[in-house]
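User: quick one - fold this with nicotinamide-adenine-dinucleotide bound?
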Amino acid sequence: MSDSNLGKATSPAPATGKLAIFTPGLGAVATTFIAGVERVRRGLSVPIGSLSQMATIRLGKRTDGRSPLIKDFVSLAKLDDIVFGAWDPIPDNAYESAVNAGVLEKSDIEPIAEFLKGIKPMPAVFESRYVTRITRATNVKTGKNKRDLAEQIRADIRNVMQSSGATRGVMVWTGSTETFISPGPQHQTIEAFEKAMEENDDSIAPSMLYAYAAIMEGIPYCNGAPNLSADFPALLDLAIEKGVPVSGKDFKTGQTWMKTIIAPGLKARMLGLEGWYSTNILGNRDGEVLDDPASFKTKEASKLSVLHTILQPEVYPELYKDFSHVVRINYYPPRGDNKEGWDNIDIKGWLGYPMQIKINFLCRDSILAAPMVLDLALFSDFAMRAGMKGIQEWLSFYYKAPQTAPGLQPEHDLFIQQTKLKNTLRHLMGEEQITHLGLEYYQ
Ligand SMILES: NC(=O)c1ccc[n+]([C@@H]2O[C@H](COP(=O)([O-])OP(=O)(O)OC[C@H]3O[C@@H](n4cnc5c(N)ncnc54)[C@H](O)[C@@H]3O)[C@@H](O)[C@H]2O)c1
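Assistant: Sure. Structure tokens for the protein plus nicotinamide-adenine-dinucleotide:
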């Protein structure tokens, strides 16, 4: 971790001026996020699900009665100051894409239709070999090589900043899940990475070019998908060098969010686990992309890591050794964005007696993800102003597979993640950490 991340940052600069939020990918999540922000700023909706807009933070002792809203405690960009920039290989504007995604009702979209029609995707850096199931990819950049394409994204960023008058920017990857790529020698140093871009190396996926462009332009990068994207030494070193916060990977929305609530509860009570079977059906474009085994492999790796890290079978072999963990995603078009997940959890209690928990979660993927895009953008912008750079572990709260320093186990327990997030805000603002010891009330 860099020095500036360890020490208390000097009071973060206030959020004055406009903030440009860039989304590579203008699909279900991005349009639900953009439409939501616009509805909230017109007073038509409430930003439910967003910590940055709705949560409070306790400061000092419980008897002090200080619990301001987070957005009043730290200087976050105001929703009115947000402007949007997006790229997508599909040429639909945000209105067409939102209608097509089928997440929001027509009655929620129509009052803001003109606004959404004004958000047109810039031509994307896209290659179907990394996302095989996208058809209609006509809005695509061409260039001399991958480095040239990355330079074109940088130019887009500068143009949006200039034309909108934005003083700061943040990028959140809301594009499709790319095929699985393991980091290789091309990803170890920035020199090797830049050379690989020039040589059009296959190991350089489009999302890496967006991440590189963002970092080079000095804007934080957040990765909502499980793609490798910015999770390797070359780009992480670059982020430190440029003073840019990065975080990822893969929004923690439906089943995995549930896992990181239930599993810590089982472990807290020292109850054992024999197996956890998760399956779900969804019918949106994301589901279609994940129907391709290569994209699913990326997602599966991200989903499987959670239970093992929380339950620590190596520390508690009698409880968790060799538990079975199966994750299935099935593309089922009639369901659209309204995913249905089933979890069967085989647990064991006192004297080894078996019990079962069944969860049937009828969720809406993009409704859960949209407020995370907002929070990640606002908190990453705040982190940048607070002098934070490189991996932002305190934003693990939002991710299925949190990026951490090399050799460090990620923290998956949702409530530890929440404490970490709030304590980081307290720390950056010079407030005392809350330890929950509480002995002072009994002396
Ligand atoms: N909704 C959730 O709960 C959730 C949770 C975790 C992760 N995610 C991830 O978020 C991402 C977005 O999900 P979604 O439901 O909006 O999917 P979507 O298919 O509706 O939208 C993704 C968009 O990205 C575009 N795209 C693909 N490659 C691109 C590129 N190289 N540059 C720019 N755009 C590109 C596609 O054309 C598409 O319009 C997916 O990777 C998904 O796995 C979603």
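One thing worth noting: The first helix runs from residue 3 to 6.
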